[in-house]
Amino acid sequence: MTQAGTAPEDARPPEELSLAAEFTAPRRADWQALVTKVLERSGELPPDFEGDPESLLAATTYDGIGIQPLYTAEDEAPPAGFPGLPPFVRGGRPEGGARAGWDLRVLHAHPDPVVTNKAVLADLANGATSVWLRVPPEALGRALQGVHLEAAPIVLEPGEDYERAADILMSLLSDVPSGEAAGALGADPIGLRARTGRPYDLGPAAALAAGIAGRYPKLRAIVVDGLPFHEAGGSDTQELGASIAAAVAYLRALTDVGLSVEDAATQLEFRFAATADQFLTIAKLRAARRLWARVTEVSGGTALGMRQHAVTSPAMLTRRDPWVNMLRTTVACFAAGVGGAEAVTVLPFDAAIGLPDSFARRIARNTQSILLEESRLAGVIDPAGGSWYVEKLTDDVARAAWREFTEIERQGGIVAALDSGFVAGRLAETRAERSARVATREHQITGVSEFPDLAEKPLAREPYVSAVDGGLPRIRYARAYEELRDRSDDHLAEHGERPKVFLAALGSPAAHTARVTFAANLFQAGGIETVYPGTTDDVAEAFRESGARIACLCGSDRTYAEQAGDVAARLREAGATAVSLAGKPAEYGDGITEFVYTGCDALAVLTSTLEKLGVK
């Protein structure tokens, strides 16, 4: 018997906990050998392959940055420093978000100020800590009625009317002590130039900043908005490079009106996109602080931190299967929090469709609340710090973004680079590469290009009409596939059925199931219904009964070699106007008109199939 309050000897924890101490230290070569075996068993290893198996698993970002499958202490990066100290990679505040988390910022853009006011009050009563308003200046008073402005920072996005909007907001803040008035006035003539293609003078924005500098320590006059470059299809480092170049232009304008570098820098708030690529988002935000610290240092001041507002990417949102957007924005919000953003906005899952409803706004708001309050995500300062992958990626992103920034400076600065078309040309190159990856489904979009639901009923929302247009394009990655789905919906409404493709299974289920699944997934991404009768003795008769006009053969390479040519001929005799095959191109006879396979141009296949089926 043991005495009360004591534990048996064998139940007591060891003085020092050891991890895998009984195993020998693994070598990279051992891991590579294991990976090679797995790739061989899965059929992913090319014949006579003698190279490094890591090369088969590596990926490349749109910036040309290599993403390796394994990172170790050998992947060196510059010291990240300490939180709250230059170069601010690990965060702009020593305590991070451990005390107060991040600013949970909600966006409102409804044209009716009464509706906006009701929604704003609901958000503030249920967890939101600041408000971002995209409304006309004359709507501000009604939209903010009943809002305690001393407790809720207001961030404006008034477009070219920023001077009038600032006057109205400052009058609303007249009863608030100057030390408590917080938010941003939203002046961004460079962002307007990017959005509209029209010139805007930086002078009024600089004068506005000079007018509040020193009087309102928590109020910022200018927003450096990276979203125009992101939404134009730009890469992470192109967004960063253009944003830093815009900030440098503002820094010059502000110091020209008499502000010091330090005072000028405190008038800027940076807005960046947070995407579902969580590691790139984390690295981007960490790298952005490093770049800005270097800029302020070489500008004659001390290295300064950066006020960051992260917004979940509008470009990644889908109109089809929009509920998946909840997952995308959750991952993006997680990344923004881990990356150290001081303010985060989660766009509602229906934002790509139109003006969000109350349910969508509640989910967006509660996404942040769960990560902050239940997951305690902000309770750890720089939780990604020390990760070999994150530290190396942060350094790679910082260096690539600095090259983008310095190239823009060589063009004469961001204004000149926008006017000459240099920035637009760089973004167009990345947009073309992104479009190609989306078309081939290398860049997968769940619920749209992958695993679509043809029975889904599209959501209807009150349309949102942007008054800003004419400059850099705004894209959504899913749009091309969604336009094909729209054509299918119109065909269904007119003819009572969707366009369809017959899946002809060859061989046993073990031989054809994987390619049946692949083909069905691909065709349904274009709104094309697939008819799959399973294994049948008379494939031609099954095709006739299906009512389809196009067939796709699905089987193994062995069954293709034995049966594809004959089955294709029989399907042709049964009335098939085209016969495709799920597999890499090979010689199977004249009856095969097209091949569908992993990495093929799915958008081109789907478009041509709809045209063959007479879908308008």
Q: Overview of this structure, please?
A:
- Residues 61-131, 214-459 form the Methylmalonyl-CoA mutase alpha/beta chain catalytic domain.
- By secondary structure, the chain is α/β, with parallel strands linked by helices.
- The protein folds into 2 domains: 103-413, TIM Barrel; 481-612, 3-Layer(aba) Sandwich (Rossmann fold), CATH 3.40.50.
- Helices cover 43% and strands 11% of the residues.
- The strands form 3 sheets. An 8-stranded parallel beta barrel has the order 3-4-5-6-7-8-9-10, surrounded by 8 helices. Strands 12-11-13-14-15 form a 5-stranded parallel beta sheet, with helices on both faces.
- Helix 9 (236-256) packs parallel to helix 11.
- The longest helix has 23 residues, at 388-410.
- The protein is globular.
Q: Which features would summarize this protein structure in a list?
A:
single chain; 616 residues; alpha/beta; TIM Barrel; Rossmann fold; eight-stranded parallel beta barrel; five-stranded parallel sheet; 21 helices; 15 strands; globular; Methylmalonyl-CoA mutase family protein; MeMalonylCoA_mutase_a/b_cat; Cbl-dep_enz_cat
In short:
Heterodimer of an alpha and a beta chain. This is Methylmalonyl-CoA mutase family protein. The protein contains 21 helices and 15 strands.
Largest sheet: 8 strands, parallel, barrel
The counted number of beta strands is: 15
Oligomer: single chain
Please indicate the count of domains. 2
CATH architecture of the largest domain: Alpha-Beta Barrel
Helix content: 40-55%
Q: Strand order within the widest sheet?
A: 3-4-5-6-7-8-9-10
Distance between the termini: 85 Å
List unreliable stretches of 5+ residues: none
Radius of gyration: 28 Å
CATH superfamily of the largest domain: Methylmalonyl-CoA mutase
Q: Helical stretch count?
A: 21
Beta percentage is 5-15%
Shape: globular
Q: What's the pLDDT, averaged over the residues?
A: 93
What structural category characterises the helix and strand content? alpha/beta
Protein name: Methylmalonyl-CoA mutase family protein
Pfam families: MM_CoA_mutase (PF01642)
Domain Methylmalonyl-CoA mutase alpha/beta chain catalytic: 61-131, 214-459
Subunit structure: Heterodimer of an alpha and a beta chain.
